[in-house]
Amino acid sequence: MKSAARLALLLFAAAAAGCDSPRQQLDSHELALAAKSLASLCAEAELLVHELGSGTVTVNFALVHQDALAQETLKLAKQLAKPVPDDLRSTHQRELAINAGLQSGLGQIAAATAQATRLTRLEQQFHALKTDARALEQQS
After folding, report:
1. From residue 134, how far is each of 14, 53, 56, 57 by CA, in Å?
2. CB atoms within 10 A of CB 19
3. How many domains does the chain have?
4. pLDDT (tens digit per residue) in 77-133
């Protein structure tokens, strides 16, 4: 009886893993949601860097928030790590590039905390990424 229970558990785990299979293709709705999430994350990062530069938030707060945003970009990268139909490939590639740029910028916040010009460049970078993400969102 124990082996039957184990077999059932293994089959359930395999079925559950198959539900999030990377073989399932992304559709236009999922890409639109990803673009919306990217725009939101970029806006948050832009605001965070602006507030850090103006002294509205502490460095410790900024670093914790930076980490939380980075975790969200990783979740989004996982969602985007699925194949896409040929007609959506361009949008998918642009979203991957925006997410990579966002991750890269978030990784620079800690080193830029005391440098106003670096913070300004990061703020501009996040603003440009947000604009790109919103453009993708409008296309969907």
Report:
1. 37, 25, 27, 26
2. 7
3. 1
4. 999 999 999 999 999 999 999 999 999 999 999 899 889 999 999 999 999 999 999
Please name the residues in contact with 43: beta carbons below 8 A apart, sequence gap of 6 or more.
126, 130
**Is 7 within a domain?**
no
Question: What sections of 28-58 are H helices per DSSP?
Answer: 28-54
- Distance, in Å, from the CA atom of 76 to the CA atom of 84, rounded to the nearest integer, reads 15
CATH of the domain at 130: 1.20.120
Quick check: is 107 in a domain? yes
Tell me which amino acid residue 56 is. Answer: T
Query: CA 130, 136, 140: angle at the middle one, nearest 5?
Result: 140
Q: What is the pTM of this model?
A: 0.82
